[in-house]
Amino acid sequence: AMALCLKQVFNKDKTFRPRKKFEPGTQRFELYKKAQASLKSGLDLKAVVQLPPGESINDWIAVHVVDFFNRINLIYGTMSEFCTERSCPIMSGGLKYEYRWQDDSKYKKPTKLSAPQYMCMLMDWIEMLINNEDIFPTRIGVPFPKQFQQVCTKILTRLFRVFVHVYIHHFDSIISMGAEAHVNTCYKHFYYFIREFSLIDHRELEPLVRM
User: Which key words tag this protein in UniProt (predicted)?
Assistant: First the structure.
């Protein structure tokens, strides 16, 4: 069942957005391969997220932000048929937490959206940022902007909300699809990463604190 489910999870039509790829031959591609290799080696996830000696922290963060975007995108893509305007008219994490959408273009004030609308806005917004060379430079020798880690904090904080919503509102669907182990591993990896580099305000983590 697990293999079948992962086939579903990685099914092209299920992907919420096309995957963002690292260009082979680039330093970031090498870092990505290094990170994936330690992930597959069965090392403790707390050790996997640590910055390898001699590597730049911004490169390491950039690689993980893009990778988490791809993976969370896939997780939500498999859940999206269960997450509808009717089932989830508000983007929330249980009764206590409601997330409103704000960006600098269409929604200048925090706005109530349904969960599917919120997810759509979120994935478009992240995709736009990671494809922006001024924020995520891909050419060697081009420095990261001063506000790079701030931008990443905002991206990761919002991606964390996808886990909150999926775990609190769609956990039965995760279990029925046999995707529990996959989602849990992705969540743990994400959690250890943001804790290692203090990338999310601890108050944002409260909805899943019992996990």
Answer: Kinase, Metal-binding, Transferase, Zinc
Q: If you average pLDDT over residues 56-67, what whole number do you get?
A: 94
Q: How far apart are CA 184 and CA 51, in angstroms?
A: 22
Query: Do the annotations mark residue 170 as ligand-binding?
Result: yes
Is 186 annotated in some ligand binding site? Answer: no
5 labelled as ligand-binding? no
What CATH number did the domain enclosing 80 receive? 1.20.140.30
Residue 140: the pLDDT is: 75
Give residue-wise pLDDT tens across range 63-93: 999 999 999 998 998 888 899 999 999 999 9
In a domain, 3, yes or no: no
Spatial contact of 136 and 62, defined as CB atoms under 8 Å apart: yes
Q: State the distance between the two ends of the chain, measured CA to CA, in whole angstroms.
A: 24
Structure tokens at 45: 């996830």
120 assigned ligand-binding residue: no
Give the count of domains, the chain.
1
Domain that holds residue 188: 60-208
